[in-house]
Amino acid sequence: MTAGNVPATRWRLRVCYTKTGRPRFISHLDFIRLFERTARRVGLPLSYSEGFSPAPRIAYGWPLPVGLSGMAEYVDVELSSRVTPEEVVARLNRALPEGIQARDARYISPHGPSLMSEFDTGSYVAHLPAAGRDLEEWRAAATRLLARPKLEVTRERGGPAGRGGPAERGGPAERGGPAGRGGGGPGVQIKVVDARPLIRRLEVKELSPDGRVVVLMELALGDKGAGRPDEVAGLLVAELAGDGVSVTRPEGMMVARLGLRRESAART
Known about the structure:
Helices cover 22% and strands 32% of the residues. The chain is of the alpha+beta class. A hairpin with a 2-residue loop joins strand 9 and strand 10 (225-226). It has two domains: 3-118, Pseudouridine synthase I, catalytic domain, N-terminal subdomain (Alpha-Beta Plaits); 121-266, no CATH class. It starts with 10 loop residues before the first strand and ends with a helix.
């Protein structure tokens, strides 16, 4: 609040950015620290929370799993005075590390819904080694996978520092198998999840010239669970092999998140 209890004007700017190359291995928490330092360094007029420990009013979108490229990620920045979106993008790009780049920015209502609540679907593209199979075999495997009423995968939480969090790893059993069969070590919690309701689209598009199969996925993001492309890729590879044994991240897989959207908006 300003003097006389008049609400301070705040400008809410939504920045779209890419995260590729080496920075894709930066955790979400480290990215938050990096972005806040950068915003301060370039002199953006940040709006701060009140109280004994004021913090910049910056809201981040759905965490990008470590190792994935992001082609259209979002962050909302509240400013105390208006700066043109073009100027904000130019300032950020002068200071952000190689591999992280602001694409564009636009002002939105400061009274609108939170950034996380605006999106409930992530779009991904995965490039998987074709393993000597033709396009029709891959498409048939995807069709069989989607026809299954349940697709159970195991996820791990906790464990020693440096092993990542729930947004950074997990998937079909790779380190210990199903719950109750060894687990992943001291302090690790294993949870069995049905991944089928989290898959909104799975389409095998083509075989690329480098011998990889290109797979498009649309996966749910929400408080009831978030789909993980490494899990879906592992399930697809297992379905193709017909042995029911899947891995967390198929060897040689490359994945990028193309963007975020709201499922309900796509139907209108």
